[in-house]
């Protein structure tokens, strides 16, 4: 039996996937409301295919609890934020979870850390927790790192088909955990040591962040001299060895906007390009604001109260708002004491989380003269005609071209 600890965006689909493929699973989370919802037969976030997978896992016998279980394998999938000052990983969620696992784990158990961690975290923060319980890592308890790579919006498909990494300092344990993940994973599974697995995961997300920053910086450069960055990238990408990403309003979510900071925090004198990329991407919400002001001036729109924001989530077709560029932009406005936008709408965010939020496209568009599209949800892409009467700042290149559509 396995006990999955932390049933959020990663832990829940992982637990369900194991259960649907014949593994006995108990999912544990300390959030009582979340566990009550799952026990009640409802999922806790929106994701393509999640409800169907939930149904299969229930049929296969998955159960949910706020209690940690006595079992032979634990999979820990709790948050790993960074400390705002030092930029280093805040490993407190991971070490607290492992501490509680150690209170119930039998001798010989394997603890798999799925959470993304900076290189050295398992040695510096997890190993001491095990040793404080009087056990020796590799004898009394085995530690493994199995970082997750799935992307929200395509999680179920990627859980099944992505290649994975298993980091274990004992190759036999690595092979055992590989076999466990092979119950559902059809991709290739590389087995390596823990430190390499930790670094590999952080390096992957940092690669994405740097490449996004390059596109974003190009957008700023091109804007200064009226060049069309989209046309330039399109043509540059016709080169056989060039593949520039699209610029956007910034980077959010719990991964790409967080993990590169771990390297900056741990290697401050060396990780210069990485820090710079983070700063470029974090500057984009302000760039969007200044671009919106330019358009407002050009169109004689007097104040921000005639401007609406479409999109609160950090990417399209998900309900996750963590670190989203829209929230970053609203925070920046608050810091500069700017007056608020008149309306904010996101079809994926049904709860009120910011002031002036509305819950239908019709209500959103009434009285708005400029719409800033911060997220290219399919709902909008498939119904672009609704934007015909307004000016649009399309930060995601999602709205096609027309005289009323402005780009970054
Ligand atoms: N969200 C993503 O797209 C994504 C993708 C790849 C990797 N990751 C990594 O996966 C990890 C988890 O991220 P997430 O997005 O699922 O986070 P999340 O916040 O959605 O879920 C974490 C869950 O852990 C629970 N939790 C925290 N501490 C606990 C404890 N001590 N005991 C029991 N439950 C506890 C919380 O209540 C929460 O439900 C992070 O390290 C993240 O970097 C996330």
UniProtKB/TrEMBL annotation:
- Which SMART domains does this entry report, sorted A to Z? UDPG_MGDP_dh_C (SM00984)
NCBIfam families associated with the record:
NDP-sugDHase
Q: Which domain of life is it from?
A: Bacteria
Family membership, please give it. Belongs to the UDP-glucose/GDP-mannose dehydrogenase family.
Please identify the protein, giving its name as recorded. Answer: UDP-N-acetyl-D-mannosaminuronic acid dehydrogenase
Source organism per UniProt: Adlercreutzia hattorii
Q: Which UniProt keywords apply?
A: NAD, Oxidoreductase
GO molecular function term, any single one: oxidoreductase activity, acting on the CH-CH group of donors, NAD or NADP as acceptor
Q: Which GO terms describe its biological process?
A: polysaccharide biosynthetic process
Task: Name the lineage.
Answer: Bacteria, Bacillati, Actinomycetota, Coriobacteriia, Eggerthellales
Q: Where is the UDP-glucose/GDP-mannose dehydrogenase C-terminal domain?
A: 308-401
Q: Does the keyword Transcription apply?
A: no
């Amino acid at each position: 039996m396995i006990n999955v600890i932390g049933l959020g965006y990663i832990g829940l689909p992982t637990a369900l996937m194991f259960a649907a493929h014949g593994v006995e699973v108990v999912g544990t989370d300390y959030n009582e409301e979340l566990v009550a919802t799952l026990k009640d037969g409802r999922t806790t976030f929106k994701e393509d295919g999640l409800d169907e997978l939930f149904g299969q896992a229930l049929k296969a016998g998955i159960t949910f609890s706020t209690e940690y279980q006595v079992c032979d394998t634990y999979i820990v999938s709790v948050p790993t934020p960074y400390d705002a000052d030092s930029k280093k990983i805040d490993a407190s969620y991971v070490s607290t979870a492992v501490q509680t696992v150690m209170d119930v784990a039998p001798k010989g158990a394997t603890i798999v850390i799925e959470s993304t961690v900076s290189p050295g975290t398992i040695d510096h923060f997890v190993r001491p927790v095990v040793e404080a319980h009087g056990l020796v890592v590799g004898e009394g308890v085995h530690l493994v790192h199995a970082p997750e790579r799935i992307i929200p919006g395509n999680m179920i498909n990627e859980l099944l088909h992505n290649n994975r990494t298993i980091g274990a300092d004992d190759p036999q344990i690595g092979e055992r955990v590989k076999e466990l993940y092979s119950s559902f994973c059809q991709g290739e599974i590389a087995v390596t040591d823990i430190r390499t697995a930790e670094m590999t995961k952080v390096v992957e997300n940092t690669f994405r962040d740097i490449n996004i920053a390059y596109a974003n910086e190009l957008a700023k450069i091109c804007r200064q001299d009226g060049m069309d960055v989209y046309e330039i990238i399109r043509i540059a990408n016709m080169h056989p060895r060039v593949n520039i990403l699209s610029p956007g309003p910034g980077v959010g979510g719990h991964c790409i906007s967080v993990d590169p900071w771990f390297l900056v925090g741990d290697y401050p004198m060396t990780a210069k390009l990485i820090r710079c990329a983070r700063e470029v991407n974090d500057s984009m919400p302000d760039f969007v604001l200044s671009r919106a002001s330019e358009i407002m001036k050009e169109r004689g729109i007097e104040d921000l109260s005639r401007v609406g924001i479409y999109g609160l989530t950090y990417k399209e077709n998900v309900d996750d708002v963590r670190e989203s560029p829209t929230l970053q932009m609203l925070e920046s406005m608050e810091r500069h004491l700017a007056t608020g936008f008149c309306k904010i709408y996101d079809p994926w965010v049904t709860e009120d989380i910011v002031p002036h939020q509305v819950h239908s496209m019709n209500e959103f568009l009434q009285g708005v003269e400029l719409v800033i599209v911060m997220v290219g949800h399919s709902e909008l892409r498939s119904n672009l005609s609704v934007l015909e009467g307004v000016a649009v700042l399309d930060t995601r290149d999602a709205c096609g071209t027309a005289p009323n559509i402005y780009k970054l």
